[in-house]
Structure formats: structure tokens, C-alpha cells
Amino acid sequence: MVIKVLGAIVLSVLCWCGTPLLGQPMPAVALAAPVAAPEAALSRLFTTAALEADWFADSFLAQISLAQIEQILAGITASLGAYQGVESVGENYVLTFERGTVPTRVVLNGAGQITGLLFETPQLTNLSLTELTQQFAALPGETSLLVLKDGAELAAHNPDSPLAVGSAFKLLILQVLQQQIAAGAHAWDEVIPLQAALRSLPSGRLQDWPADTPMTLQTLATMMISESDNTATDHLLALVGRDAVEALTETNRPFLSTREAFVLKDPQNQGLLRRYRAGRERERRGVLGAIATVPLPSVSIFNNGPLALDVEWFFSTQALCGAISPVANLPLMQVNPGLVDPSQWQQVAFKGGSEPGVENFTTELLNTDGRRYCVSATWNNPDGIDELEFSTLYRSVIGAMGAE
Predict the structure, then answer these.
(1) d(CA 160, CA 278)
(2) Cys-Cys link to 259, which of 40, 200, 230, 335 (CB 3.0-4.6 A)?
(3) Distance between CA 387 and CA 347 in Å, rounded?
(4) Is the pTM higher than 0.70?
């Protein structure tokens, strides 16, 4: 639901600094041992006793120190074991270790120095779905996991427990929009103007766009799903109607807009929050009426960790697999594949959700044999989420499905 601030993690983006602008002169650099191939540059990071500064461009080291690079590389091998090799996959690379793999991107300048380096989410290998499910279950706080193959359960942990799922709730808005378009009430190319009263906070971009900017429903829906744009979401919720979305769920009444959730979570609005928490459904709807005139808070309210985790959208992983299935074939669902390499699947539909203390990933996948999978995982923890650990387990589950 909101822009996430990563905490201390072992594996992460190292530095994606990019390359010099075209036509910009590149400074001459003397290298002790020039490396032409990216594979060799990557392998050298894990096979040489000590890093050397001249392996990296000055622009790279201006953003991250050699000591920090060494710490991250050491963390990778501590988690995944000894380095075994590297192979190219398209324009990118996969590093292999004793206990897992790490998709990696690297850019070298003309002198063979690293100007950009990105370690993506690792995948644990040689672990079964049962073992990975046990690791999900061992996470602190509350967790839920469901893996389906053609509707049959391959793995599950608390699949019927409604947990907070952040922006994954947007699947229901898309589902209602699709139904109304099919019924002729709306059209994908229908244009509506952005409204100042429906402006929300990030994630997304539309909160910064001028009021009255014309937007098609197709564009709003694409931004709601692929970028999790909260302002696009609130416009579509207002369009299709809160009651229509509530008809699809028994656990979220009233069904909050993102703006309403942000206002309730704002520490400056404790009185509204107390009334909302104490009220039944009717009283809560009354509180939402009062919220309409309350200013949006700053996104910085989340800088110190989780806020009011009971003000959320609550769904089980079973319900989320049910929610993504009706919309999975829409082209807009394939814009952002999440943690999955779409080249390995016939179709990938993804929606995630998060705020401090909440994380969900839900993916529906179609393989080349026509088998359809759903993988949905949620983690709630008021003490915070280790996003890398969650992402690694999730990606590893998808990698292990083929063995089942």
C-alpha cells in the first residue's frame, strides 16, 4: 500500500548506477587486470581473496564503499554457501551457490570496470515444498501460504486465515470493474477526470498529477495493478461502488479506500481511529463520512514502523487465489510479473501488497503444458517484516513447484 523502506538485509540491491550518457567522454582508467566478459567480472567477486577498487568505476564507489560491497558478498556466501559458477541468461546472469541461485545484472564500462551491479531475490535449491512451508510457518508473527495446481492443493499453511494483505485487495476492485464492463455499464476506453478529492498517497504517480487530467479506465486499472497506484485505486473504487466490492467479501466491511486507511493510520487522528475501532459497521461508515474532509497525512508517518495494523484489508490466501483467477487473463495483469521470470511461463499474473508489518504476494501462473498454479503468501508481524527473507521463500516455493 505504501512505499517500503528496506531494513538491514543480507542480500539486496548493491548498486544500480547505470552507464554514462551516450556521447559523454569516459575517463581513461588503468586496470591491474582488465576483464572483458561480465561473467569473469562477476566470478572474480567471489573467487578472489580481496576486492580491488579498480574493479569498480569511481561513480560506483561514490555510492557504496568497498567495505560495504565486501559485507554484502560475504552475506551471500554465508546464506547460500560456496560460489560454484555463473551463467548468462539472456542479457542477465545467474550466480550458483551450494544452496541456491541469485539472478544478477551487471554493467561494465569500456575499461572493464563495474558501473552497475544488482543482486536480485535469491532462490533456495534442494528444498521441498514441505520444507519451505515449514520455514514460512516458522516466521515470527502470523503467516499464511497456499500453493494450488489446477485447483488442487500442493502445499498449505493457514490458508483460510484472513490476514492483512495490503494492496492485494485491489484484485477485487479489478474483478468488479471487469464485471461491470462485461455488463455494458462501463468500457475500458471510457475516460474519467482525476479528482482532487480522490487523491491518495504513494505508491504510484497519480497523486502528483493535476486534477481534471483525463484517464481511461484501462490506464487507471493498469496503474492500479502494475504500479499499485493508490490514487488510481480510489478513483476506480468510487466508480464501481463500495457496495459492489463488498459483495465479494465478508471480511472487509466497510471496504476502505486507500485515502481512508491513510487518514485513520495518521497518529494525528487518534480520535477518529478510536471511534472507528469501537464502532460496529454502521458507526464505522459514519466515521468514513467524517474522514472525507480530513487532510491526507505525509507518507513519512510510516518511517518509524507499523501503524494501526487493524486498519487494513483482510483476506485468506484461499480467497486471494479465488480473487486473482477471474482477472488473470487480462493483459494488464501481465505488466508486472513480480518475482517470476515470465520467459519461463506461458502466462504470469501478479499482485502484491505491503505496508510496514504487512506483506503479501499472489501469483497465478500458466505453464507451457497448460497447468495453472496459484501461489499466495502473507506475513503479518507488528515488529516488522524481513522483506528479503519473505521474497526468498516465496521465489523458492515457485521454483520447487515443478518437483511436485
Answers:
(1) 26
(2) 200
(3) 25
(4) yes
SS3 helix, strand, coil % of the chain, rounded to 5?
Answer: 40, 20, 40
Distance in angstroms (rounded) separating the CA atoms of residues 286 and 279: 9
Q: Which of 126, 121, 101, 125 is closest to 42 using CA atoms? A: 101
- Count CB neighbours of 307 within 10 A: 21
Is it true that the peptide bond before 128 is cis, omega within 30 degrees of 0?
no
Nearest-angstrom CA–CA distance, 209 and 192: 14
For the cut 80, the answer to whether the pLDDT of residue 31 exceeds it is no
Find, among 122, 166, 168, the residue nearest to 380 by Cα. Answer: 166
**What DSSP character marks residue 168?**
G
Q: What average pLDDT does this structure show over 127-132? A: 95
Per-residue HEC secondary structure of 176-214 comes to: HHHHHHHCCCCCCCCEEECCHHHCCCCCCCHHHCCCCCE
Cell of 10: 543480507
Euclidean distance between CA atoms 95 and 103, whole angstroms:
6
Contact 125, 100 (CB under 8 A): yes
Query: Which grid coordinates belong to 133?
Result: 512451508
User: What is the residue whose three cell numbers read 464485471?
Assistant: 179
What pairing do the DSSP bridges indicate for beta strands 142-149 and 152-157?
A: antiparallel
The sign one gets for the Cα dihedral 286, 288, 290, 292 is negative
pLDDT per position as a tens digit, 178-205: 999 999 999 999 999 999 999 999 999 9
pLDDT of residue 404: 54
Torsion 211-213-217-218 (CA) sign: negative
Under 8 Å between Cβ of 137 and 143? yes
Q: Are 403 and 125 in contact (CB under 8 A)?
A: no
The tens digit of pLDDT for each residue in 278-312 reads: 999 999 999 999 999 999 999 999 998 999 999 99
Terminus-to-terminus CA distance in the chain, angstroms?
33
Q: Band the pLDDT of 126: cuts 50, 70, 90.
A: confident
CA distance 131 to 143: 15
**Which grid cell sits at 275?**
471511534
